[in-house]
Design a protein that fits this description.
Strand 4 and strand 5 (about 90) form a beta hairpin. The N and C termini lie far apart (about 50 Å). By secondary structure, the chain is an alpha+beta fold. The protein has helices at about 5-15, 60-75, 100-105, 110-120, 135-150, 155-170, 210-220, 225-235, 240-265, 275-295, and strands at about 25-30, 35-40, 45-50, 80-85, 90, 95-100, 175-180, 190, 195, 205. The chain has a five-stranded antiparallel sheet with strand order 1-2-3-5-4, with helices on both faces. Strands 6-8-9 form a three-stranded antiparallel sheet, covered by helices on one side.
Length: about 300
């Protein structure tokens, strides 16, 4: 079911699911710019229903999200999956507080531990075919999509391609882990006892530096935070070589977010100011690019 479907149609589909008991109350849940979310309450309590179809231009395939969600739940990192089907994913509701960027900075060590667990523990629970998430492939694919769509910033694509090539060369060979690949603060929930990690739309095999770079750039880490995070994750103080590889992947992640928004400008039918989001992320990328050049 596409997220653009009307609310009545979505609610009728949700009510028809055979897993509910007794009266069913449905309320929209804010957030989500690749899907629509609802809280459903029945006699057993609350559940979250995520509604959204495949989005090939962004590499989002729901079979992959569903498999990642089940594996993350089995690893104790994400809530249990009650049901999954075409366009729908039903999860246990976690009663807790969604983190802000400031919260992530305060809980930096806890978030880093959770990311390390994600990279270490989820792969053993995965079933079936899964996707990879190579940020440099994503950037190349986005460039093709933007050319095909005659995007308003078409003249900047050669610049982006040149910078991506330099970043890929600086990254070098990578270790491969199963990553979350979308570490926004809003994807962390604190239930008062522990942290949970949600929303596996972009999950796939990737460099651990991508998640670490996203954790930093999405949540306002400074250089001290980054060194502490890298030291905790790798079990050693980061040297200049690791810092430079980390910064290269972080730059690529910011360029990917900007180009994600550029593609969404011409392909998404959700109500969101993608043009403003593109500008915000291009500015963040340029600032990170300057820091990367200073490390050469």
């Amino acid at each position: 079911m596409p997220p653009s479907a009307d609310v009545d149609s979505i609610e009728a589909t949700i009510r028809a699911l055979p897993l509910w008991q007794g009266r069913v109350d449905i309320a929209p849940l804010s957030g989500g710019i690749t899907n629509r979310n609802f809280i459903v309450t029945d006699r057993r309590g609350k559940a979250v229903v995520r509604v959204g179809g495949d989005i090939p231009v962004h590499g989002i395939m729901r079979f992959n999200e569903h498999a990642a969600s089940r594996a993350a739940a089995a690893a104790g990192i994400s809530p249990a999956v009650r049901a999954a089907g075409p366009g729908l994913l039903v999860l246990d509701y976690i009663e807790g507080v969604t983190l802000s960027a400031a919260d992530v900075r305060k809980r930096r060590d806890d978030c880093t531990t959770l990311i390390a667990r994600t990279h270490r523990d989820i792969a053993g629970h995965l079933r079936g075919p899964l996707l990879s998430f190579n940020v440099f492939h994503v950037l190349s694919d986005y460039a093709h999509t933007l050319r095909d769509g005659d995007h308003r910033l078409l003249d900047r694509l050669p610049e982006f391609a040149g910078k991506a090539a330099r970043l890929e060369a600086a990254t070098g060979a990578i270790d491969l882990v199963f990553g979350h690949n979308d570490l926004l603060a809003a994807n962390f929930i604190d239930d008062g006892k522990r942290l949970w990690l949600l929303d596996w739309d972009y999950a796939g095999f990737n460099s651990p530096l991508f998640d670490l770079g996203g954790l930093s750039s999405n949540n306002g880490f400074d250089a001290t935070d980054e060194d502490a995070m890298l030291g905790q994750y790798f079990g050693r103080s980061p040297d200049d070589a690791l810092r430079r590889r980390f910064k290269a992947v972080q730059c690529a992640s910011l360029l990917r977010e900007a180009m994600w928004s550029m593609v969404s400008e011409i392909h998404s039918d959700l109500e969101f100011d993608y043009i403003a989001y593109t500008g915000e992320n291009l500015a963040r990328f340029e600032a990170a690019w300057t820091l990367f050049l200073d490390m050469e």
